[in-house]
Amino acid sequence: MGPDTQAMQKDDLANPGMLSVLEGDALWKAPVGASQKSCASCHGDAPQTMKGVAARYPAFDEATQAPIDLAGRIIQCRAERQGAAPPQREGRELLALTSYVAHQSRDLAIAPPQDSRLASARAQGAALYSTRMGQLNFSCAQCHDDNAGGHLGAAPIPQAHPTGYPIYRLEWQALGSLQRRFRNCLSGMRAEPISAGSADAIALELFLMDRAAGMKIETPAVRP
Amino acid sequence: MARALINVPAKSKRGEIIEIKTLMSHPMETGFRPGMDGQLIPRDIIEKFVCTYNGEVVFSAQLYPAITANPFISFTTIATDSGTLVFSWTDNKGDMQVQTASIQVE
To answer: Are the beta carbons of B70 and A16 separated by less than 8 Å?
Structure first.
């Protein structure tokens, strides 16, 4: 990430991701669905109640007995507790709410939950990370561990720490989730993309968040 | 609903050069891209940006399809008097989004 992109990310009035955070703030307070409850009706003032939440997701969901990511939790809340239509993955509403919630944890260290029920999914994520796949027969680890800091064509290879999601990617000209980033990487290596919200995607996110433990959340990050 | 972020220094000295930064939320859809159904997505771009300072135009720009989504426009002007800055973005359908900011000049 060059100095220009870093400056853009640090300046809240130049970071385009902040537009989405602003939209999320309005959505947080707006009553929706059959219950006519807003997020704020239950969770109150997000800067206080949502502080640190993104740093400990994905978490274990008691209801489904499976790991759940932050976007998944928002979809669940919207559908089950607010009685609204579940927002679409990668849709504007979900990205705005996710970035707004995750933004409340900015500058806090990633602290994955030490929940033993997450261990098997985390191990599944770790296995996926080092599994060769696709026509190019690459694994995530070959680029992001073995060749991090090098270049793929003209693009620098980062260490794949998911510290700033949802990110505003200049190439996308839009905000996108970590799962979109996965699909982007996978289609680049001619592998079958992991579908949004699937167990594989959440397992990989669990592993990456654990790998990035202690690093600071930057949401909304700007990336080239 | 479009949103904008505007950065105008709240206070400045008379005669000082001030930097104004604006970030507008807009898809800037070029009209050249096909969508998922293969049909062209209709053009939806901001065509004109104008900033007036106490009624006088201090900066204006015409925007074209090659400009990025969420255009960031930054410019400078001289702080002459206390008052309001009015920013307006007009898209190709003629819809206008207006935002204001006030400035205190000492």
So the answer is: yes
